[in-house]
Amino acid sequence: MTETKELVDHMKAELEHVHDDVEHVGRDIEELNAHIKNLDDHLHHLLDETEEGTIE
User: How far lies 17's CA from each of 26, 45, 48, in Å?
Assistant: First the structure.
């Protein structure tokens, strides 16, 4: 019985680590999406300036 409890406890701890890793990856993806949006906005701004001939 003790061996089974130790195995269950170990698996719970591993699952918590995986959950933490998934949350971390989720935050990284959100940050990456924000950077991509920022770059996209900047690109559109530059394209607008190029079309208007107002690049500074």
Answer: 14, 42, 46
The helices-and-strands tally (H runs, E runs) of the chain is 1, 0
**Token pair belonging to 46:** 């530059």
Between 49 and 7, the more confident residue is: 7
Q: Determine the Cα–Cα distance for residues 56 and 51; give it in Å rounded to an integer.
A: 13
* Rg of the Cα atoms in the chain: 24
Of 37, 33, 36, the C-alpha closest to 25 is 33
Q: Tokens 């933490």 label which residue?
A: 20
Q: Is this prediction's pTM over 0.70?
A: no
The predicted-structure confidence for 44-54, as pLDDT tens digits, reads as follows: 998 888 887 76
